[in-house]
Amino acid sequence: MSEAAEPITADQLTIVPANEASWDDLRAVFGTTGEPGRCHCQYYKVRDFEWRALSETTRLARLREQTACGDPKAPSTSGLVAYLGGGPGGGPGGEPVGWCAIEPRTAYPRLLRTRTPWTGRDEDRTDDGVWAVTCFVTRKGFRRRGITYALARATVGYAREHGARAVEAYTMITQPGKEITWGELHVGSRDVFADAGFTEVSHPSPRRVVMRVDF
To answer: For residue 92, what pLDDT is reported?
Structure first.
């Protein structure tokens, strides 16, 4: 299936906590090449010196442990998985197509120590009641079709249902004619979160905007 094909609408997707998805399905979303297949959503989970010491094998193992894929009774997980059509197990037309990392903000040590998200804000960084959306991955072949928008909307209900008092994201501003690489846009664009009902709470740099929903 080629990129930039017909848009995928929210009602075509089934979005589930990652522990309800299979590990094989999540691996299919991340792939084995490119930034997702190297990072395995570990960049914000460790501090700088730890990141350099982690092998790809270790990053992959950490992701598997954090998501608890295949264990619907797990007490926690670290994100959401989007299926086109049916959900886990394949179903009619069910195909794993997207991932979104969402957890309490304190689950991301690097985020807590990065200066930019906190510029101009008086925040208790250790508040477990504030959740964070830190990463999106769309499976190759399904990109630029609206999956990220649906995942961003799903984070609001998911965070609320799990006791969050707020959920926020650290987005990029996209502008016509100015290229942004995947390595930058993995956090999502401002437009994606505005569509999901998030509002801007700070603008710490020319291209970074903190977006948030308070419950």
So the answer is: 46
